[in-house]
Amino acid sequence: MEQLIDFVWKKGLIRPRDLVEIRIPRQYLSIACKQGKLKRVGRGLYSLPGKMLIENRSLAEVCKLVPSGIICLVSALQFHGLTSQMPYDVWLAIDEKARIPRIDHIQIRVFHFSGLALSEGIESHQVEGAEIRVFNPAKTVADCFKYRNKIGLDIAIEALKDCMQKRKASIDELVQYSRICRVERIMRPYLEALQ
Prior knowledge:
By secondary structure, this protein is an alpha+beta fold. It folds into two domains: 2-47, no CATH class; 54-194, no CATH class. It has ten helices and eight strands. Strands 1-3-2 form a three-stranded antiparallel beta sheet, sandwiched between helices. A hairpin with a 2-residue loop joins strand 7 and strand 8.
């Protein structure tokens, strides 16, 4: 039981299949939950009680349940502190050919990305033992301009201003990711106005 608790402490969130690497039977999860040592936070997800902050827990849970997904757009802006918006859903980028994941206890908004738009600008953060994959600030701003019709141009402009004021990304990085997302022509006037 101690080995299980130590493992969950290091990982933050675990799934029953994670126990294979430490050779602990899955039954110990339900025993630990009954004893109050673990908490079932979602279908197939376990954590220590009170371990993670609420704002990052849903991001970590989604990343654990959808290993190929990346936190994007408004959720990524909120993670990087680049917006005043508080999204109710977790915004998730997946491959254009991947099927939409079904998660019961968390609302997600799925966006299909492809090529460099999916593979470039990914950061991995350890938040209280759980891994969160999220696009970096410059890539997130470029994505916001790409999806401006879905999230609103005002949010994209606010993100660009905050990104430059807080020095989260350089002009070169913003231009690089605007090319990858094919929004360089759209972003250029705003970049020039803020310089």
